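Sanity check

After download, print the first record. It should look like this:
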Amino acid sequence: MHAYRTHTCGQLGRSEAGAAVRLSGWVHRKRDHGNLLFVDLRDHYGVTQCVADISSPVFAILEKARPESVITVTGKVVERSAETVNPRLATGEIEVQVAEVEIQSMAEVLPLQVAGEQEYPEDMRLRYRFLDLRRDKIHANIMLRAQVISYLRRAMQDQGFTEFQTPILTASSPEGARDYLVPSRLHPGKFYALPQAPQQFKQLLMVAGFDRYFQIAPCFRDEAGRADRSPGEFYQLDFEMSYVTQDDVFAAIEPVLQGVFEQFGQGRKVTPAPFPRIAYDESMLKYGSDKPDLRNPIVIADVTEPFRGSGFGIFAKAVDKGAVVRAIPAPGAAGQPRSWFDKLNEWAREEGAGGLGYIQFAADGPKGPIAKNLEPARVAAIKEAAGLKDGDAVFFACDKKDAAAKFAGKVRTRIGTELDLIEKDVFKLCWTVDFPMYEKNEDTGLIEFSHNPFSMPQGGMDALLHKDPLEIKAFQYDIVCNGVELSSGAIRNHRPDIMIKAFEIAGYTAEHVEEHFGGMLNAFRYGAPPHGGSAPGIDRIVMLLADEPNIREVILFPMNQQAQDLLMGAPAEVDAARLKELHIKLDLPKPAKKD
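Expected structure tokens:
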């Protein structure tokens, strides 16, 4: 018989009844019934109930074994009686009568319990992550992640992509976030950077002729954490393709994404390919976001004109100064009590708005503070523009275009949640396309890149030479699921002349482009195919599939919000000898003075 186990703790059933077996695992739970001691033994695969009689010498040994101690038991498999069968366990029809037991590792008193559903503070869970990972839910999340990655890898290979590994130590590059820098011992005063993404390398692979690349790529960014973003590092399904249009990129990745959500979505509906495509301008107008949550049926409408020159002076004056007005419908909300509207008004103030005006379309006519000050014809125009009917209400956002869109989007989400309109048990995917290439900085009045400077402008060089920069769109796109951006992508600018002109419009000299992106630019001068790609975030995909609100629930050893690894004690100080070897002197901030 094997020294530790003949079976796993999730394997035994009626067919093994009468067999002598050996199991090893952790003491999950113990129940002392006086003359009988029941021990639930757990390993990676499941739980098996083991039982010892008080007359047996193993009883005292098992009695001393604390929860989470590792033990090996040897005994006979017996069928449980009908009334003691546990249908919640795969092994619930049997138990093991323990004849021998060996304690492999005695656990100390636990700082957090593995069995049960107790909640613990995040700092405790991260400090004792090895215990936290034994708990059913988090263990299942990590296994889901592993299965998702395996699926994605196979799906990409089936689509004709080849997996390559790009460098981890590379050069610092302005990607929009701060780099993690690595000092060079051999080159004093110089630093490597950890890649924020394999962007330049995967484009160089296209120039090198590899045609279809993918990688389960680690990315490193020194940025603050959020619920949907882990500080420090994350993983993405990075891919790039040669000789493709935007449509080709969509056609390649859509079946992969549809498949992963269908495979692991536990029966939840998934948007079938081809996914809807929503232009950026339309998305900002209708949904108040470039990451539209299509589970929410509310569609925002432009009602600027009904307020222009109207009797509702606050909006009318703002419109004269260039503001817009957005209407956010609240289906069926006309009958809500005044307190409901007051609560939303207070919420709007907490969000930094002046308030949240509204109209109720009651059966006996429009009501509310705005309706009282607005001509009936204008109220009717609003009702028609926003697709409202009697029994509905409507809220308003009035501000400059971008600010009004952003606030209207928040209101849309809040109303959809308040009225329980968000569709459940579904994954709604879409593309946001036609992002603007440039935007005007409101403070400086200068033209800047609005998103990715390496995207190909729609219209190429002709657009850069002859169009208003603020009207130029890019071949740039985001893939969105349930209001969560999974990734950005683009058809790349593979022409050095177009790239230099694009940067020139944004205020950068050709010398600046050569200095910062010379490696890739030089490669493009030797024959670069048209190419494009994207990089859906694996952490976010798993977070959605696991229905977790926080991304740390699907990562093995995440950092906390302050970018600290509480388990391993990182970041940590380094001794003076090591710093000297790396030619580094510290210039630490002075501690704040005490009053």
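If your output differs, re-run the checksum step. Summary of this record's structure: The chain has 18 helices and 24 strands.
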